[in-house]
Fold this sequence. Notes:
Chain A is an alpha/beta fold. Chain A is globular. Chain A has one domain: Rossmann fold, CATH 3.40.50. Chain A is built from 5 helices and 4 strands, in the order E-H-E-H-E-H-E-H-H. Chain B is α/β, with parallel strands linked by helices. Chain B has 4 domains: 6-134, Rossmann fold; 145-257 and 421-493, FAD/NAD(P)-binding domain (3-Layer(bba) Sandwich); 260-419, FAD/NAD(P)-binding domain; 497-557, Alpha-Beta Plaits (2-Layer Sandwich). In chain B, 30% of the residues lie in helices and 25% in strands. In chain B, strand 12 (228-236) and strand 13 form a beta hairpin. The chains are: A alpha/beta, B alpha/beta. The site of FE2/S2 (inorganic) cluster (FES) has 13 residues of chain A, from helix 3.
Amino acid sequence: MSYEPKIVGFLCNWCSYTGADLAGTSRVHYAPNIRIIRVMCSARIDPTFVLKALREGADGVLICGCHPGDCHYSEGNYKMMRRYPLLKKMLTDFGIEPARVRLEWVSASEGQRFAEVVNDMTQRVRELGPSPIQQTLAQDMAER
Amino acid sequence: MEEQRIGVYVCQCGTNIAKVVNCEEVVRALSEQPGVVVAKTYKYMCSNPGQEMIIADIQEHGLDRIVVAACSPRMHEPTFRKAIQTAGLNPYFVEMANIREQCSWVHDDPQVATDKARALTFGALHRVAKHEPLERMSVEMCPDVLVIGGGVCGMTAALELADGGNHVYLVEREGTLGGNVARVDLTAPYLDSARDLITALVTRVEEHKRIDVLVHSQVSSLEGFVGNFTATVETIWGDGASVSQFRVGNVVVATGYKEFDASRVVHYGYGKLPNVITSFEFEKMLRAGRIQTKEGKIPQYVAIIHCVGSRSKEFHTYCSRVCCMTALKYAHEVKSAIPNCYVSDVYIDMHAFGKGHEDFYKRGSEAKTLFLMYAKNDHPVIRKAGPGDDCEMLIEVNEKLSGEQIEIPADLVILMVGMEAREDSDAVARLVNISRDKDGWFIESHPKLDPVATTTDGIYIAGVCAAPKDIPDTVAQARAAAGRILAKTIRGSIEIDAVFAEIDEDKCSGCRVCNALCPYSAITYDASKKKSTVISAVCKACGACVAACPSGAIKARHFTDSQIFAQIEGVLT
Ligand SMILES: Cc1cc2nc3c(=O)[nH]c(=O)nc-3n(C[C@H](O)[C@H](O)[C@H](O)COP(=O)(O)OP(=O)(O)OC[C@H]3O[C@@H](n4cnc5c(N)ncnc54)[C@H](O)[C@@H]3O)c2cc1C
Ligand code: SF4
Ligand code: SF4
Ligand code: FES
């Protein structure tokens, strides 16, 4: 069987989670690799959530929030946006391709777009192959 | 720690879930997990028997945590919270896995969908194990209401609320009340006068002792939360401006619509051909009591074109819902004013869905109107007539029923312009913290089950600002919104969600990083103790401070790190 990546999605409740629900109610099909976790706002997404997901076996992490200017809490997504480069840098330091983590804006009316984002993300992670973090962890364990 | 006793309930949602997800298999996998005492599947978990089954199990098996794998928590989380509360559990001891919107409705391979449903349910199982009991807070509900927009919708809502005993601030941007209906002559389908309707409403609103009308005004900010908003309103007077501020418990948004700009449809020649006019311009003629061409002549041929800007892939895909009946109303009015005038009505489909509409259509078709059908996106073309023609313009229509290309004469063409979201609808949405759909209309909390509420507590939407509709539907929504607010304010207080941030004083280093970060200034700093504290009633639980605190001192109740970590572990097992 071909390799199927595991993706964890952190979605803000107000726009993106609602957008994903809309993909459902509109029956817009998309790749089944994603497992969605709801948070109130993208600003709640601590870099440790992303690392935790990767450590637990995720091959990719998708972060979705409201479009800039549309955050339910006015500026939470800007806070996420500022944290994002730092997160990418952290990943590089850990030897993980930064492309495994992606930040996207999906509004409550963008069910179709949500499906496209998930499909695209799944395809890209599939091309990257399994996350190297498992090997790194195994090595770590062996060295100890 | 005492061992937990968890119940897992996998809903089939009729066949919505079960036709793709093998619910029995999910139940089997879950029942083998530590802590799971009961695992069941049922046709409709949210139905009364479904809820009663959960309640009975809690009591019989001494369950202390519940997982419901079903639809989106945005739909039924409150239902199941209430159910387990009835059984004596803390309402926060339930977690839902969204296996319908995120699984059976978007995937078709049964095995893949079943695997994913199992993973999502595992996520909920791991998470619920970490849930903590939370107590809801009761806060005072200010009975006063802010209504934004003084059209039929806003005025009706204001009157209903004020009659119910609440004080209302009615804010209208223009200098007069009435909105778009004030621009209309007779109303379809019963042909009563719009002027009478508006005058009656305006008079009552202005005389009502519990309604403060603020014209030439706009809301510049809205702060706070349900029950306790502070609204700031700016009023422009002839030579200056003034600012007023008041406290309100709830808000009704009734900002309506603007008409589609007909000049965007180039082949209709609006703005170039003087006798091509919009419906609103025709209403103005009717109100003035004289139907005539720009040259002051009585038209012999009048043509009416439907769906201008509506139901088209180029402009708006939606139907504006009132134009078909309004067009019939025009045919009727032209015929009664100029009995020997030829009226043609050029439409895509005749939408006559409302009460009394089909009869109105029947009467219209008996009134010797020539009906021509054009295909969607195959618009008629209007051009100026030649010197030999006895009319001003000629309209070319690819008539769909006959399959022929037909040319009809016209001295006056009325374009049935559709409705469009107002230019500032995004600013209004931001002001009151609600969302808009792809066309710019405000989004309701649930299109069927909760049409006038929004995802922001205390903010209601009614009338055309939520989507095109006629006056009866607008009035119904206005009263529905008012009714919802009256039902809530009558109790004097409301329970607010127990989900907010909390600072652990022992861990707080007093660095104050969080203070400036909070969008609601919900965090105060005690200089003597050198500690920060969250004012729980003001916090809206975004979690920004939680993720930013360098000391890890802030906890997002019900969205704690350990709960989210547990869910991550669960979905990846
Ligand atoms: C040509 C035409 C003919 C029609 N004829 C009929 C008919 O015969 N029968 C029928 O049932 N329906 C008819 N309708 C539909 C009718 O116009 C609507 O149902 C009705 O106007 C909806 O009322 P509303 O209060 O929601 O919106 P509106 O009438 O648009 O009123 C909104 C009000 O809010 C104000 N406002 C907007 N933004 C702000 C802001 N930011 N701050 C403060 N104030 C603001 C506006 O100035 C306006 O006064 C017709 C529509 C058209 C286009
Ligand atoms: S960021 Fe954390 S440590 Fe700093 S003041 Fe706020 S709660 Fe205290
Ligand atoms: S969770 Fe958000 S709203 Fe609440 S105190 Fe923290 S930053 Fe402010
Ligand atoms: S609520 Fe969606 S990003 Fe803040």
